[in-house]
Design a protein that fits this description.
Number of strands of chain A: 0
Largest interface: A-B, 67 and 67 residues
Strand content of chain A: under 5%
CATH architecture of the largest domain in chain A: Orthogonal Bundle
Oligomer: homotetramer
Helix content of chain A: over 70%
Number of domains of chain A: 2
Amino acid sequence: MSHKKAEERRERRAAARRNQILDAAAEVFAEKGFARATTKEIADRADISEGTIYNYFQAKEDLLIDIVGRLAESQSLALVIKPDMIEQVLAVPPRDFLNAMFHMRHAFVLENNHLPMLQAVTAEVLVNQEFAARYYRELLEPAMGVLAQHLQARIARGEVRPVDAPLVARFLFAFELGLLGFYVLGDPLIQAEWQSDTLLEAMVDFFLNGLGDVSAGQG
Amino acid sequence: MSHKKAEERRERRAAARRNQILDAAAEVFAEKGFARATTKEIADRADISEGTIYNYFQAKEDLLIDIVGRLAESQSLALVIKPDMIEQVLAVPPRDFLNAMFHMRHAFVLENNHLPMLQAVTAEVLVNQEFAARYYRELLEPAMGVLAQHLQARIARGEVRPVDAPLVARFLFAFELGLLGFYVLGDPLIQAEWQSDTLLEAMVDFFLNGLGDVSAGQG
Amino acid sequence: MSHKKAEERRERRAAARRNQILDAAAEVFAEKGFARATTKEIADRADISEGTIYNYFQAKEDLLIDIVGRLAESQSLALVIKPDMIEQVLAVPPRDFLNAMFHMRHAFVLENNHLPMLQAVTAEVLVNQEFAARYYRELLEPAMGVLAQHLQARIARGEVRPVDAPLVARFLFAFELGLLGFYVLGDPLIQAEWQSDTLLEAMVDFFLNGLGDVSAGQG
Amino acid sequence: MSHKKAEERRERRAAARRNQILDAAAEVFAEKGFARATTKEIADRADISEGTIYNYFQAKEDLLIDIVGRLAESQSLALVIKPDMIEQVLAVPPRDFLNAMFHMRHAFVLENNHLPMLQAVTAEVLVNQEFAARYYRELLEPAMGVLAQHLQARIARGEVRPVDAPLVARFLFAFELGLLGFYVLGDPLIQAEWQSDTLLEAMVDFFLNGLGDVSAGQG
DNA sequence: AATGAATGAGCGTTCATTCAT
DNA sequence: AATGAATGAACGCTCATTCAT
């Protein structure tokens, strides 16, 4: 039916506009922060007029909310270990699993305009309680939960030491969050090596062996 | 001389006023973010009038700059391993050294109104290049440099594995930065345990041993 | 001719659309006032798109102008004493004439969506000189003129005291205008009784006898 | 005490500013209507900057609310028959009482910038339910109540016919409201005579005698 | 003839900064 | 040194109007 097709095309166009606006918003938010970003600059960046933003979003704040939503969706597609794949993933040795995970997360950051989105959202989250809750609930908690379960399974299989899985999952995410902070702060070493095997292997090595507890044998 | 004394007293009072204003500013910045914080609220919080702020600072932005300065100064007093103490510090076993360092850094966060200052500065740093540079140069780089050197010395003494010291120093600071992020985000586990021995020891353990490389023996 | 018929049908449809839009506009203007009413809400209320309004009217303001026009036309059909009926109307006793007039005017307000139209126009008229002139010229003056003439004829016939006819005609219309104001303001007494015989008779009685000049006999 | 005096002077200045702004606002509201009036024009008219308005009022709407308040206060000072004066007022013959009342009300309109205030408020009231309620409660009801009581007392004394006092009080106020409408609409007769004895006496005469019920004697 | 996405001027409001007191 | 009233630029947002479809 032509009516149906026309509707579909309209919806596709609307979705494209929304994404166009969100991409522009994420960039400006990342550069200036949410509060200092102006709807005018977002509109200019997206090559539309200010009024058009409000045909697609109710308020400036909704842009940030929807950016979180897009990140969450994107992450869930990319990072969650699907229930029906558990066995296959557990078959991968810990070293390779860690490497793959770090690799995937570092690649995720640079894909699809994710960096400005993460930067924009992270900065706002530090000074906006409502956002903090949403960010924690939608982005951190689900991914951390999956990792903690996975870790627990590895422990049960005797592949890693019997550490406190939820705590170590937080360590891992905190570590990644901090490393992303270093990237955004412009640390030359982290920026240059962000996707390099050198960095990923150093991380894997560090997570598996730590500094090497020489005292352990001595104590 | 009484003239000199009067001058000194005046300067002491001025410094007290500055600190009073900076404390108020740090709180408001932490709660709302720099851009959303208003000079009116800062003035109210500091129990002075808006005009008075401008007798002590040229612009709102200077408040944040001076907060970074105060943090840097405070950190340099508290955290830098003084050159004339190197030998004594190296005498401490790695495990105790790490424990002391984590303990000191976590205590630092909660002391002297440092948390709001760190929160305010960290949020702004993510979206303000000028600030990012200042923060990196004044707060991160010096402390990281000292730690990297220290680590190198430990490696030379055979106390820790021959890791890439500058990189691992970054790992350590990234980890701490990310953990602070979790604290500010309101992660219940991290917040509850922030200064507990349990958390500090888990961290030390993790840094010394990692997950335990079971595959190492297998490879 | 089928061409002519098609044209007529088109015109009838166009007139229906115009009325559909004007009815919707009058409602929204009455509820929110002209300036606060949006073309979007008018379009929604009329079940058409915003663009369609502009196929029938040049601008939002024209909606109000045409509402005045419709009211004037409607009033002239209903209220003006036709020249060829003068004799018949004068044959009606004053009391019955007043009663009929009040009855007709009060019914007029509640008929055919007139109330929102009157409300919308009256509110705008108070703050818009151009409109005030149009309203006065098209709605008040003609009706007042007819009433004044009629009154004069009654005076000539000795049926009413020799009052200043144009002034008393104004009194009568001012009174009705004010009463409509009370209705719109939500005065419970006036609203409840708007079309009741009680109110109409009290009005007639008041217009014929006033408060009763007790002093007249004393003076 | 000089502190107290300074405070008093400050308050006097603030009150003057508020009045200066309200006067300007009333004028602009009367000319354009509340919604079309801009804060910029009010500020220009009051010879201050737009920002200053917001040092004295929370929002544009509060200007109108406070105008109603000023009118109510002003009216209560001018028009309410004080309880301890009832006897004196009742001693005045009905004709003189009506004349004085009409005189006072017509003078009130032209005094102290009341006309633009009444015009502004009346126009808004017709299209704003919240305002209608406030206007009715604060401006109409109290004055109408006093008049109805007074009328009842006159009836009890046999000075006026036994009319329905609350209803006739409404008639009187509706009449005045409508007459004010005619004034604002620019009716040349009403405008020219607004304060003239001719008009006032015609009104008094009309209220006392109506059109003269010739039929009464006939019936 | 009807649509509704796009426009951009203009609105009410905020707030860092100034300055007379 | 301290005040707080005044400022006005700049913001987020609305909405009458246009026009390609």
